[in-house]
Specification:
Bound molecules: glycine
Helix content: 25-40%
Distance between the termini: 41 Å
Shape: globular
Amino acid sequence: MMKSKETRRSFLWKIAGMSSAVAFTPFLKLKAGVGPGKSPMILCSRGRDWGEKVLYPGWDILDKGGNVLDAVEKSTNVAELDPEDLSVGYGGLPNEQGVVELDASVMYGPTHQCGSVASLRHIKTPSSVARKVMERTDHIMLVGKGALNFALAHGYEKANLLTDRSRELWLKWRERLSDKDDWLPATDPDDAVEKKRSTGTINVLGMDANGDIAGITSTSGLAYKIPGRIGDSPIIGAGLYLDNSVGAAGATGRGEEVIRTCGSFLVVELMRQGYSPQRACEMACERIIKINGGVENIKRLRYNDKYVAFNVDGDVGCASILGSTPKLSYLNPEGFHVYEGKVLVD
Ligand code: GLY
């Protein structure tokens, strides 16, 4: 990876110069070998409802010829700041002690730079802090207190991320966790048993008219996790990977399986070999099924991983292991699209 002072300086220069340059020259060619003439697009790993909410703010930036990194950050921030989303940013479900810990990563194609934060508490927009790690340090990943101190140094506001709704869901989970402790549930017969531990995440991937790519993955991770548990989302190559000459991929679902298969890296490398984004996502899911001993084991384990991807031609794909048909949504000059991928195991 880069990280000599010399290269870092030229990288910062490029980023700083780019925002203003692109603002005045919408289709400025920034990198040899790709575009101009590519169809800009922005994609997220969710269907229509969240797609419409999240993608338009980022698309506005791309449509005006803005920086693709600004676009994916803007879109991701929408989900991070929305307390209705129980799996990302503010309002995300907490760890087993009732504390929200967030993970996020960012990657920028033209320079192949990346940044990430993990187990970050108190900051509503971890993807923006990950971008600061990428742009304002010689490191790639900051965790825990170090990540929080870094965010505070950059002026991010310290907030309580636990909304009443998330706290109440956590409380129900805690009270029903065991009949051998002193935590007792309310005696409401209509109260649904809440033992499910979800992993929700958002991937936002974009490409500008020059063919330059950026991506973000952001999550509050596995609900009620052991404090300090880090999933795939902040790990470059696992929850997020891209290559400016190939395309981009992101993962959601059980992070442990994505980490041990280097999932998003695998998807991008399969696309480099010529596989379509759709087939590459399926093959990455098949790898998880294989390392877990096959379909019958996966049905028992209920691993719910999903990949989304696009290539530099603007083709998209998504696949998941179990459950309902996986969806992604994207915006390009033709408009808003919902794409239905393939679920591998019935
Ligand atoms: N994919 C999110 C997580 O496992 O943390």
